[in-house]
């Protein structure tokens, strides 16, 4: 196939540097937010990934007609919206649990049509909103999850830009579920012949191993054990649903809204 | 098998936290030096890994009778040893090449018996010595490579300690070769029933994919492409030799020396 993405100005800034000058756009995976300073994010479209559960819930909420979801870094910022008198839903999660005093956390079952249609949600989470704020200088920030993966990938294919898949991870470290999703995106974008870096290769290889039974594969992770202790196994199962949504949440100013495509 | 490693005091400090209280020592993988601040290194024996090529060359040099290898962070520190009048060999590598004015860099072929037996080498490299210095508070720091993997793992099995495998990576980011080696260590230590974290699971799964043809697998990496451009393919092939050494370099003060076992 013809590669339409030659003459990228970006490639010099790749931290791994293996594919300078090879004439196509880059598809890279940032395995944890702690590694984001290694990337010049303004050269990329960033996909933020926090499969269990923030970005899955954001995709589900936008799909279900939430007017906007405002990601904020701190619990205090989230609480401050209460004083502003807006009719916002306030969602705060830390360490996998709803913060006391808030309407809800980041369980996808809190983002149903009945609960969020027409409403604005202010959301802070342990990992996902952190990754989003660190990516703020990106060309564009979109939200990915298994729920909207094919719609997301089809849109990415129409963009003539470098793509950085940012895994929110767990407290700044690597986790398997976000990496597997990154690998699934790499899989769908293979036909476009992006230049991939080592993390993207690893993510895709792990996805190949896991794809026939994502749930079974993830059961062996430490994160799965922790989430099980939190009693959110139904949430986990829900977050592994593939293509039940066709919306792409995109950051517009300080709010995530449904992308018009 | 009976697990002899119960009642670890360490587990509370695990950044992933999935295996607290499960009653055995931890075997964790730090995928890049940039993630080291997430670990309380004083709770671990650290294995420093920089397969292409620093830790492979260190293992080979110690095996070949080098009296000591002194890892230093900066090229200037390395150069300063010249003025001290010692009969040291000075080795400096940056971005894969020998720094001009130095005896040699980190090619394993510079660490033969003829060149290093009875001598002390002062070494600075892009990634490997960086990872080592960041790990300095560890209970013990040892050096790993495919050259000495079985000897290293057999020794680790005799230690009743948490183990952190620190991948030097490439300029603070993830690379495949160091991760694969970490996965190979996880494989050899499986019988000891350590508690592993997500990076260790991922590293081991990638190793399973690659183990039958490490060279072929690594050819698809960006790093391999870069190293090929540097003309060091013979070095790469050499660094993938398994078990040609039976020495374990260990940090003693500021010097890496042969461990007495």
TrEMBL record, chains A, B:
Catalyzed chemical reaction(s): (2R)-O-phospho-3-sulfolactate + H2O = (2R)-3-sulfolactate + phosphate
Enzyme class: hydrolase
Domain of life (superkingdom): Bacteria
SUPFAM superfamilies: ComB-like (SSF142823)
Cofactor: Mg(2+)
Molecular function (Gene Ontology), one example: magnesium ion binding
EC number assigned by the record: 3.1.3.71
Keywords: Hydrolase, Magnesium
Family the UniProt entry places it in: Belongs to the ComB family.
Protein's name according to its UniProt entry: Probable 2-phosphosulfolactate phosphatase
Organism: Mucilaginibacter limnophilus
Organism lineage string: Bacteria, Pseudomonadati, Bacteroidota, Sphingobacteriia, Sphingobacteriales
């Amino acid at each position: 196939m013809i590669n339409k993405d030659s003459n990228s100005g970006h490639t010099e800034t790749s931290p791994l540097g293996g594919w300078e000058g090879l004439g196509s756009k880059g598809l890279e995976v940032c395995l944890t937010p702690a590694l984001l300073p290694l990337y010049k994010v303004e050269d990329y479209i960033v996909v933020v990934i926090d499969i269990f559960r923030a970005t899955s819930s954001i995709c589900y909420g936008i799909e279900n007609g939430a007017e906007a979801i405002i990601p904020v870094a701190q619990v205090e910022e989230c609480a401050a919206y209460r004083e502003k008198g807006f009719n916002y839903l306030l969602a705060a999660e830390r360490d996998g649990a709803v913060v006391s005093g808030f309407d809800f956390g980041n369980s996808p079952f809190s983002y149903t049509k009945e609960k969020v249609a027409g409403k604005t949600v202010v959301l802070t989470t342990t990992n996902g909103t952190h990754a989003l704020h660190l990516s703020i200088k990106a060309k564009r920030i979109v939200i990915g999850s298994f729920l909207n993966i094919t719609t997301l990938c089809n849109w990415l294919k129409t963009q003539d830009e470098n793509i950085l898949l940012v895994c929110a991870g767990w407290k700044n470290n690597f986790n398997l579920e976000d990496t597997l999703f990154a690998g699934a995106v790499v899989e769908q974008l293979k036909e476009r012949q992006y230049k991939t870096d080592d993390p993207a290769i690893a993510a895709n290889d792990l996805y190949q191993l896991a794809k026939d039974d994502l749930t079974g594969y993830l059961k062996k992770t430490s994160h799965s054990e922790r989430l099980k202790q939190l009693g959110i196994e139904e949430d986990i199962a829900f977050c592994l649903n593939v293509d039940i949504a066709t919306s792409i949440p995109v950051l517009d100013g300080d709010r995530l809204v449904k992308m018009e495509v």
